[in-house]
Design brief:
Number of strands: 2
Largest sheet: 2 strands, antiparallel
Shape: rod-shaped
Oligomer: single chain
Radius of gyration: 22 Å
Strand order of the largest sheet: 1-2
Structural class: mainly alpha
Mean pLDDT: 76
Low-confidence stretches: none
Strand content: under 5%
Distance between the termini: 37 Å
Helix content: 40-55%
């Protein structure tokens, strides 16, 4: 039986969506420990074991969000420079650079 982590409804193992609320079910099959005990659920964002380094690390949950905000800040800084110096070259240089960075990083 798979228990929905949103509403707590028990569902059969073959179900992909909860019969009660329609939430996607998370299967723990294949994650049983070596001694045959019950499977340990994966860590979630609400879990106390996750530190900020795990969220912003190399494969962190918020890593791409942080990179996107940095790109937005770079474009904003170039726009402010254009207004202050009454020229367009900072924005003309920043847009292709940020677009190339976003394309390479798959933001």
């Amino acid at each position: 039986m798979i228990v929905c982590n949103k509403c707590g409804q028990s569902n059969v193992d073959e179900e992909r969506l909860c019969r009660s609320c329609g939430h996607k079910l998370q299967s723990l099959r294949g994650q049983a420990s070596e001694d045959g005990d019950e499977a340990v659920p994966p860590a979630s964002l609400a879990d106390e074991r996750i530190g900020y380094r795990d969220l912003l690390g190399q494969e962190g949950y918020f890593r791409k969000h942080l990179e996107a905000w940095i790109c937005l800040a770079a474009l904003g800084g170039a726009a402010v420079a254009c207004v202050l110096y009454d020229t367009l070259w900072p924005l003309g240089a920043a847009i292709p650079a940020v677009a190339l960075l976003a394309w390479l990083r798959k933001l």
